[in-house]
């Protein structure tokens, strides 16, 4: 009887172990960190950036064209609101798009975002008044880009671990390549076929790239079984994250001022020929291709936030120096250096956020919160500079000093994040 009782206890014990194993939920699948499917996501996300940030970063061409032609009766500040509102929606729709990605609505975001961008470009080609342009370019394209932006970053992050900064850098390089190609397409075609048809060609290029993205991109992690809030309160209790978000706000408030006004500055202040001045934006954006990839390689070794802080400091110094540049050679060198360093900031921002998140499944949610600060800075920074810049007297100094000071403030905040992080690591290790 004792033997039978012992055997029964052993059986029950084994049965409990089996039952416990069956009840334990399986963990997330291992991160591939490479392979065909993972790199296809990078290709697809690259085209998403090509047709989101690529379009937003091309607004300097639209700014110059609108001021000299279609919207010549409007002030620079009024015109810049179109581009900044477009950029604001691009990043701030992420506060909804990020959680929706986490919930498993990735393909809905892809389809809706792609349609809005293409429709926005086609309707922009028909617009003739300020409010028509604002609705087509600022609202419709901005909403579409916002639907695509957060998922394009979040999905790549889930496929890579040690190569995440490099993969994100290649993804972000799509924005630089797009902002090289689109200004050249507009500048070369507009005089030949007119602005409406040049814009339609941009729309067809965007359609081609977005179709590729929709065909190859697939999510890796299953959606959570329990619904989460769109805003995770833990983000606001994280001191490093709050400091980082404030740094994003200050940084982006000043970062885009030279990008939006570089063409006008070259024409009005330096006397560069109109045809040549449009290519300065292409030079700036071309150099940012390398700025999004090379710093990504360094970030995988030295840390994303560390590299981003250095590049932010370089941007601040260059913005101050810009007001002292009065020749073509100097402005070309500025465009190369500023494009490289600003490109690094934009590509490393998502991976810097990723280092502060307690749970990778919340990446989309925390990224959306961070980019709400980015979008707010982008929304108000350039229009304020437009008020400070006086085109009648060709005075750009006040606007550029304002932008440089904002970027300097961002550098200070990023440095504080690094100091706080190292203090936390020291406390935990002790």
TrEMBL record:
Transmembrane regions listed in the UniProt entry: 79-101, 108-127, 133-159, 166-185, 197-217, 238-264, 276-295, 307-325, 331-348, 360-380, 400-420
Keyword Ribonucleoprotein among record annotations: no
UniProt record similarity statement: Belongs to the major facilitator superfamily. Monocarboxylate porter (TC 2.A.1.13) family.
Entry GO CC: membrane
Domain Major facilitator superfamily (MFS) profile: residue ranges: 38-421
UniProt keyword list: Membrane, Transmembrane, Transmembrane helix
Region (Disordered): 1-26
Localisation: Membrane
Cross-referenced InterPro entries: MFS, MFS_dom, MFS_trans_sf, Proton-linked_MCT
The keyword Membrane is assigned to this record: yes
PROSITE patterns given in the database record: MFS
Residue ranges, compositional bias (Polar residues): 1-15
Pfam families on file: MFS_1
Membrane topology according to the record: Multi-pass membrane protein
SUPFAM superfamilies, per the entry: MFS general substrate transporter
Naturally occurring in which organism (per UniProt): Hypocrea virens (strain Gv29-8 / FGSC 10586) (Gliocladium virens)
GO molecular function: transmembrane transporter activity
The name this protein goes by in its record: Major facilitator superfamily (MFS) profile domain-containing protein
């Amino acid at each position: 009887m004792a033997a039978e009782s012992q055997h029964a206890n052993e059986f029950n014990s084994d049965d409990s172990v089996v039952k416990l194993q069956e009840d334990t939920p399986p963990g997330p699948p291992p991160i591939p960190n490479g392979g065909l499917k993972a790199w296809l996501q990078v290709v697809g996300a690259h085209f998403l950036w090509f047709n989101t940030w690529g379009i937003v970063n091309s607004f300097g061409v639209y700014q110059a064209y609108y001021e000299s032609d279609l919207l010549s009766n409007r002030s620079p500040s009024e015109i810049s609101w179109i581009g900044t509102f477009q950029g604001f929606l691009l990043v701030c729709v992420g506060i909804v798009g990020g959680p929706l990605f986490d919930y498993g609505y990735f393909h809905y975001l892809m389809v809706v975002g792609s349609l809005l961008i293409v429709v926005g470009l086609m309707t922009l080609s028909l617009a003739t008044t300020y409010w028509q342009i604002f609705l087509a370019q600022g609202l419709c394209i901005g909403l579409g880009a916002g639907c695509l932006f957060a998922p394009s970053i979040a999905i790549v992050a889930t496929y890579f671990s040690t190569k995440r900064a490099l993969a994100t850098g290649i993804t972000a390089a799509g924005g630089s390549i797009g902002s090289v190609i689109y200004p050249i397409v507009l500048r070369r075609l507009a005089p030949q076929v007119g602005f409406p048809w040049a814009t339609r060609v941009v729309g067809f290029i965007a359609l081609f790239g977005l179709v590729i993205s929709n065909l190859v991109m697939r999510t890796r992690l299953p959606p959570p079984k329990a619904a989460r809030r769109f805003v995770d309160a833990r983000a606001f209790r994280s001191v490093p994250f709050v400091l980082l978000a404030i740094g994003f706000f200050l940084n982006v408030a000043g970062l885009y001022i030279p990008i939006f006004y570089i063409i006008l500055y070259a024409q009005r202040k330096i006397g560069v020929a109109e045809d040549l001045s449009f290519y300065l934006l292409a030079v700036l954006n071309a150099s940012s291709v390398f700025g999004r990839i090379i710093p990504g390689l360094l970030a995988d070794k030295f840390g994303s936030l560390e590299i981003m802080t250095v590049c932010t400091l370089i941007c601040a110094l260059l913005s101050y120096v810009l007001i002292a540049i009065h020749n073509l050679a100097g402005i070309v060198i500025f465009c190369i250096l500023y494009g490289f360093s600003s490109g690094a900031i934009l590509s490393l921002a998502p991976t810097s956020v990723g280092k502060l998140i307690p749970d990778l499944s919340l990446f989309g949610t925390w990224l959306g919160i961070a980019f709400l600060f980015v979008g707010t800075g982008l929304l108000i920074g350039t229009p304020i500079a437009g008020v400070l810049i006086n085109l009648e007297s060709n005075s750009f100094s006040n606007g550029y000093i304002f932008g440089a000071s904002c970027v300097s403030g961002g550098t200070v905040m990023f440095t504080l994040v690094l100091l706080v992080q190292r203090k936390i690591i020291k406390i935990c290790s002790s």
